[in-house]
Write a structure and sequence with these properties.
Layout lengths: L7 E6 L5 E7 L5 E6 L9 H10 L4 E5 L17 H14 L4 E7 L1 H12 L5 E5 L11 H11 L1 H11 L15 H4 L8 E6 L7 H10 L4 E6 L5 H4 L2 H14 L3
Parallel strand pairs: 3-4, 3-5, 5-6, 6-7, 7-8
Antiparallel strand pairs: 1-2, 2-4
Helix pairs in contact: 1-9, 2-3, 4-5
Length: about 250
């Protein structure tokens, strides 16, 4: 029977003074995973807690709620200023003595960790799972629903009532660089792109576009019958991701 570890509850502040709710599982070594969730999710949800528990076998885990999500303050900018949220978590991990940081994100979180590593740096490995390569993608039914939720006032109200996610009105101004436009800057930090061939939100072309725009050292895992992000991630996949990160940072 596995021992249940209670995370250390943290309150972080970003460079633009947004309060971020986070949780830390202390690891025995000097590797820490910064775990970035998808749109409308939270590090406190059972799915993310399960993933954190699996990664914890390899090191510490720092989970966070993006702005506008869960118990964090502010409003979601859906992948733009969330890079500051990840940066606050990375700095919190450094303050706790971790020398190697592997940022690991799912869906929107995958796009954010790519952009953070490219624009801010300061990490030792990057794992992006089920992430969009480009913005404004509407070619699947689930993504048309997501855009309705983001762009319409009634949609934002519906997401707030149903999921507790608060979305900033007004859209982007200016439009931030898309993940595929900046991913080449991550090198020489090791990069892993994971995408399923059954993703109902972002088809496999997104994963391939990210991989092709990146530079070595990089890997692309095309996962057969894998759907989307945290919900579809099996324990076996998370174990493999943890194994990859431990090797990538030289643990």
């Amino acid at each position: 029977m596995e021992t249940v570890v209670t995370p250390e509850a943290l309150t972080l502040y970003t460079a633009d003074d947004v309060r971020i709710d986070a949780g830390h599982l202390r690891g025995g070594g000097d590797l820490c995973f910064v775990l970035a969730h998808g749109f409308t999710c939270s590090w406190r949800q059972p799915t993310l807690r399960r993933i954190a528990g699996a990664l914890h076998r390899h090191g510490g885990v720092m989970g966070l709620d993006f702005r506008g999500h869960g118990r964090s303050g502010g409003r979601s900018t859906v992948g733009d200023r969330e890079v500051l949220d990840v940066d606050a978590a990375v700095m919190a991990a450094r303050r706790r003595g971790y020398k190697r940081i592997a940022v690991t994100g799912f869906s929107m979180g995958g796009a954010v960790v790519v952009r953070h590593a490219a624009l801010h740096g300061g990490v030792d490995a990057v794992v992006s799972v089920s992430a969009p390569a480009r913005w404004y993608y509407r070619d699947t039914v689930p993504m048309r629903r997501v855009h309705w939720a983001i762009e319409r006032r009634v949609g934002r109200l519906a997401v707030r009532l149903a999921r507790g996610t608060r979305i900033a009105p007004g859209g982007w101004d200016p439009v931030p660089e898309a993940p595929h436009e900046v991913i080449g800057r991550i090198a020489p930090v090791p990069l892993l792109v994971v995408h399923g061939d059954a993703d109902p939100f972002f088809p496999l072309e997104h994963g391939r576009q990210l991989y092709e725009a990146a530079r070595d050292p990089r890997e692309l895992w095309v996962e057969p019958a894998f759907g989307h992000a945290e919900v579809a991630a099996t324990p076996g996949l998370i174990k493999r991701i943890g194994d990859w990160a431990a090797v990538a940072v030289g643990k």
